[in-house]
Amino acid sequence: MKRIALATAALILAASTAMAEGKLTLDEISSYLNGITTAQAPFTQVNDDGSLVTGKLYLHRPGRMRFQYDPPDNAVVMAGGGTVVVQDPKSNQPPESYPLSRTPLSIILARNVNLGQADMVVGHSYDGTSTVVTAQDPEHPDYGNIVLSFTGNPVELRKWVVNDSSGSATTVILGGLETGMTLSPNLFSAPTVTRGNRGR
What we know:
17% helix, 12 strands, 3 helices, alpha+beta
C-alpha cells in the first residue's frame, strides 16, 4: 500500500512538473506581445447570445486594430487614435465610437505591454494545452477584463474572451496569426464619427 501511495504521489508530482513546464510566464507573454508590430488572421467570433460571425483581423501595434466581418454582416470595427469605431452598413445609424481605454483590448494594444504590473493579471493558469491569462486595467477593473489563451513552442496568441463592463462576453478564436507583414494605413482609417454616439 505504501508503495502504491508513493507511486501515485510521484505521478502527481510528474504531472504537476509537466504542467508547470508548459505554462508560459507573464514575462514571456509580455515579450511576445511587445514583439508584434503587425499581424493578421482569420477569426471566428462567438457573441454573447451564442451567434457566430467570421472575418479577418488586422493588427498594427501600438493602438491599431481592425475587424473586417464577412458577408452578409460586412461590419467593420476599428481601433486607432485612442478611439474604437463601429461601422455597420446594415444600420441606418452613423458609426458609433467610444474610447479605446475603456475596453480590455487596450491592454494588448498598449505601446508597452507589462502583464507583471500590479493588479493587472487576476488569473494565470495552464489547461494542459494553453496558458490562460486574465487581465484588466488595474485602475479601472470596472471596465471589464480580457482572457487570453496562448500556446507555446513557439508562443502564439490563439484566442481571447472580452468580458465588458455591461457583463457580456465576446470570444474571438484566431485561425492562425501571421506576423511581420506590411499593412496599408487605410485599413485603420476610420470614417468621420459624430462624438457622443456611444460614450462607454
